[in-house]
Amino acid sequence: MHIRDLQPDDATLKEQAAEALVLGFREHWPAAWPDMAAARAEVEQALSPEKVCRVACDDHGTLLGWIGGFHMYGVVWELHPLVVHPRVQGRGVGRALVADFEAQVAQRGGLTILLGSDDEHDMTSLSGVDLYPDVWQHIAQIRNLRGHPYTFYQTCGFVIVGVVPDANGPGKPDILLAKRVMGDGLAVMDHLCVFFLSFVVYILSCKRCGFA
Q1: Do 176 and 115 meet the contact criterion of CB atoms below 8 Å apart?
Q2: Neighbouring residues of 102: CB distance < 8 A, sequence distance ≥ 6
Q3: Distance CA 77, CA 57 (A)
Q4: Could you tell me the pTM of the whole model?
Q5: What is the mean pLDDT of residues 135-156?
């Protein structure tokens, strides 16, 4: 697996990135990118010069997943979006992309990464209930009911820092997570982490194809 910038003139990878958005969000967030036109527009926005847009590809140059983000204010960057193609989910691609994005943010002087993860389909205990007025009590007792990605981000070191009740309609909140990124002194360790995760994904791919 190789992680690099998505180039604006790479029509093939851009199309694969758009397809990954449609397929990756279709089950639980179908309204996010309902068709290829919406997904292509998102990819083009992610390629703005001031943003970060990184793709993970296999040894044949086929897209495995991609991640985007942008500077919000101060030393805060937002992670949006992150998608791994359904055919390779669960193999460490997402973790490698997040680690790479952290390195990109640190290189640009960022200190905090913020992201929002919607729950529109009763995937957590925060969905389908009135979170007011004891919002923090609900957060403290959160349970993952059906594979919501907030627990994935927690394994990457993110912490729930809030929730926006009814962000997508009554009982459909947006869960906010944040993480402090590594400073320059730990940049080498961060790159080693990306390398290790890439190596693990490569070994798993070889085993799946019968080469190991």
Answers
A1: yes
A2: 113, 179, 181, 182, 190
A3: 24
A4: 0.84
A5: 97
